[in-house]
Specification:
CATH class of the largest domain: Alpha Beta
Number of strands: 13
Distance between the termini: 49 Å
Shape: globular
Number of domains: 2
CATH superfamily of the largest domain: Type I PLP-dependent aspartate aminotransferase-like (Major domain)
CATH topology of the largest domain: Aspartate Aminotransferase, domain 2
Largest sheet: 7 strands, mixed
Strand content: 5-15%
Order of helices and strands: HEHHEHEHEHEHEHEEHHHEEHHEEEH
Strand order of the largest sheet: 2-8-7-6-5-3-4
């Protein structure tokens, strides 16, 4: 059987692979603390679940919706963007997708011809690179010279005449970094001058901590907003990862292209999930704030514990999302492992703590630790890692 040559360059998701391995070990009876997965550990708020049940009970799930989503959901998303980011989208500029991940996939499919490039700041989420490859494009990975943030000089060093887009993820997965208004403005103005589309992945924008001033790409300048496609969804803020509702908010021409792709690729997102998402965006927002506060408390407890682990170095304290990105090269060298990957594998086998190797995010000396777990698990995980490092020494 022939498999397309382009897939030979595509790697499976490292985060999902580690999560699946952890689940297998847990099913076999192992005591696992999985810090690899990027999803909240909270239940979906009850009013959201109730809205889904009501939709099922009233028969609203027995038909296809528009490929781009229910009109009332697109209207609710547009209102949410207006309230939080101050930018007006018409409902027909909103395209609802099967998770924010598919929104990104559809965008790359819509804008890339073979050989076109996309600038991807490093570190960066694992799927950006692979999705660009699947779409026939060229991932243009941009090493950050300023901590975990890229600068215009960094971008200039990698961009080519074939560069079509740049992905800016703030708050960032895997580091929790948040770009400032000035940093975003410099990058965005550079992209506008170059005619490069800005893909703003702001899926974690509600999860910002310790007084950090969060700024959306849409809050900078009308010319920048007109050159931006926003990607977000309900997975992180509303603890709805499994409901699979994301969206792209885009210029009309691109939104129309995305709708065409979706109509042939997946059709509409699940109707019951869409009705749940309407309640998420229009209902009581206190559960979002409650979860944000819980994550902030976990960060402020877990961060110093990780910082104290021998051989773990932290560049900066995360400001958003729910990850810590640690340089563990000193620990790996001290313990005699040949790579971070083998270190992570041994840690899982011997302690039951699952992390994701930084190679998946473009930085092979690092590991990502998710604090989307209960406080007791986080404290215990830090203890197990510390004991593992000290005992092995």
């Amino acid at each position: 059987m022939h498999i397309a040559k382009k897939l030979a360059r595509v790697n499976p998701s490292a985060t999902l692979a580690m999560s699946q391995k952890s689940a297998q070990l847990r099913a076999a009876g192992a005591d696992i603390i999985d810090l690899s997965v990027g999803q909240p550990d909270f239940k979906t708020p009850e009013p959201i679940a109730a809205a889904a049940i009501a939709a099922i009970s009233s028969g609203k799930t027995s038909y296809y919706t528009a490929a781009s989503g229910l009109p009332e959901l697109r209207k609710a998303i547009a209102a949410d963007i207006k309230a939080k980011k101050g930018y007006d989208y018409a409902p027909d500029q909103i395209v609802v997708t099967n998770g924010a991940k598919f929104a990104l996939y559809a965008i790359f499919t819509a804008i890339l011809d073979p050989g076109d490039g996309v600038l991807l700041p490093q570190p960066g989420w694992v799927s950006y690179t692979e999705q660009v490859r699947i779409a026939g494009g060229v991932p243009q990975e941009v090493p950050a010279s300023d901590g975990f943030k890229v600068t215009v000089d960094d971008l200039d060093a990698v961009a080519t005449k074939n560069t079509k887009a740049i992905v800016i993820n703030s708050p960032q997965n895997p580091s929790g970094t948040v770009y400032t208004r000035q940093e975003l403005t410099l990058i965005a103005n550079w992209a506008v001058r170059k005619g490069i589309l800005i893909i703003a992945d702001e899926i974690y924008s509600d999860l910002v901590y310790n007084g950090t001033d969060y700024v959306s790409m849409l809050q900078l300048d009308p010319q920048i907003s007109a050159n931006t496609v926003l990607v977000s969804g309900v997975s992180k803020s509303y603890a709805m990862t499994g409901w699979r509702i994301g969206y792209a908010a885009a210029p009309k021409k691109l939104a129309s292209a995305l709708s065409t792709i979706i109509s042939h690729a997946t059709g509409n997102a699940a109707a019951v999930s869409q009705y749940a998402a309407i309640e998420a965006y229009t209902g009581d927002q206190q559960p979002v704030e409650d979860m944000r506060q819980a994550f902030e408390k976990r960060l402020n407890t877990f961060y110093p514990l990780v910082k104290a682990i021998p051989g773990f170095k932290l560049v900066e304290k995360p400001q958003g999302a729910f990850y810590i990105f640690a340089n563990v090269r000193d620990a790996v060298n001290a313990l005699g492992y040949d790579s971070v990957d083998t270190f992570v594998a041994a840690l899982l086998d011997e302690t039951g703590v699952a992390l994701v190797p930084g190679r998946a995010f473009g930085m092979p000396d690092y590991v990502r630790l998710s604090y989307a777990k209960g406080m007791d698990d986080l404290v215990e995980a830090a203890k197990r890692i510390t004991d593992f490092v000290n005992t092995s020494n």
